[in-house]
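lol so apparently i was supposed to do this last week
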Amino acid sequence: MSRGILVVVSGFSGAGKGTVMKRLMEKYDNYALSISVTTRNPRPGEEEGREYFFRTKEEFESLIKEDALIEYAQYVENYYGTPRSYVEEQLEAGRDVILEIEIQGARKIKKKLPEALLVFVTPPSMKVLKERLTGRGTETAEVIAERLARASQEAEGVEEYDYLLVNDTLEECVDTLHGIIQGEHFRMNRNLEFVRTIQLEAAVFAAEE
Ligand code: ADP
Ligand code: 5GP
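anyway here it is w/ guanosine-5'-monophosphate bound
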């Protein structure tokens, strides 16, 4: 069985990443979504261990010391990080693992694991982004302003990603993402073991001629 693909999904706050991930998980059962650790407070409706593992700054710092995170970053005054063990177990078991993380974390992953697939989610326009962020109603005007400022910084790094995913119609966006990931499985350099087997078998036939 081949190893799963590590998929990194980033995008501006309010682009719809959480919504797209939730729908992708409901619709297709071949993905494992990594749950991050964060020092931010839970939003209404968020549950410990479902959206995030909510931890204090001290607890988070211990995880860093123990090397229990594959990557971590600071985002608008809070820490966010990816637990290592779940990701490694799932990849080993052949499942595609999705990390929904911001750009600093995505860069760290690409550096450590160049075979990772990086996807950037945008809304159809920045006007729609602001409407979605405001419409979600989970942040104060001040936090929304900080997140929009952060979006402007992150917009500079979009070209570092392998694929652009426009989240206009939710279902189309989810199906496109599924298609991108499934297509990636057929990339030649992800199938070198199989290719070597075929080459060896072909060589045996040739020798028998
Ligand atoms: P993110 O995780 O990127 O910060 P969310 O998933 O919380 O964004 O989405 C932000 C808001 O936009 C939510 O209120 C969500 O319901 C809405 N939204 C997400 N995707 C779409 C879409 N394709 N069409 C319309 N609204 C959407
Ligand atoms: P939010 O507070 O809206 O849930 O997340 C804020 C930002 O942190 C989003 O861009 C989200 O993708 C990112 N994020 C969530 N978990 C992680 C993580 O484990 N590592 C990194 N680097 N970013 C994360």
